[in-house]
Amino acid sequence: MFEIRQSRTRRIEEHDPLHETPASNLVLPLGSSAEPRAFSPLLSRRARILAIALVAGLGIGAMEEAARLSGTPELERLARFAGFGIDQVVLEGHRMSFDGEIFDAMDLGNVRTFAALDSAAVKARIERLPWIDTAELSRVYPGRLEVRVTERTPYALWSRADRRYLIDKTGRVLAAVSGEALPDLPRFAGEGAASEAASLMETVSRYPAIASRLAEAERVSERRWTLRLANGSTLVLPADNEVGVLEMLSRDSELLALVNAGGNSLDFRGPGRVAVRHEENGGANGPGAAPGAGS
């Protein structure tokens, strides 16, 4: 059902952003763990190397910033000529996201140098993709850009109108799903259900007698929940006292017996009373009934 995506590498050439230019890694020495000796020629040499690297880095940074701010093709060509073009892009960590979506978010057609790369904006665009949780960009000198992403974990199925969606714990929609073989995940329905799903599950999980039978939770008018159980029973909860109702159920053996018998609808919205109705069809044909209810 889900297509697995492996890490990808894209190489970029001078006139075409999708061609390879070999790159070697540059590692600048930043010091040594050995104890320095006074007036050591080795220390003096390292100090010179460090100073040269620092000056070069400042110069490179100034040139790249000038090119980024000006946006002129001449400065971009100069940056590429100086060895600061993006010659290779490596993607890692994605399984559910498409390579093309991530590459498009990076705008590789227009961004060919590190001078033109706005890493904060690229990061933000990548993290707006449905499956992406975090994205980290790093540069490997001279011309390789590495992008490491982490993806979100499916948490539940959310039904909205005639469609079903995978959502994560925050309620973010990851993908539409279809077909008979759906993931074995908690199911929710109704407007506003996605963003409140994790909070409800945290509450219901404290009451195993209900949690073990929960087939679908429907959000009604974005205010309250109706819980549909696998045995056909339905719990109509009030808008502001879900915990109180579940506590009462866990302690009242008579009410719990009605729930366990199956096919009963218990409405807790009335103050100080419970309306009980037996449904001959076990609620299987009721509006928004969970698949398999009444079985």
From TrEMBL:
Its main location: membrane. It is found in: Cell inner membrane; Membrane. Keywords: Cell cycle, Cell division, Cell inner membrane, Cell membrane, Membrane, Transmembrane, Transmembrane helix. It is a single-pass type II membrane protein. The keyword Nucleus does not apply. Essential cell division protein. This is Cell division protein FtsQ. It comes from Hyphomicrobium nitrativorans NL23. The gene is ftsQ.
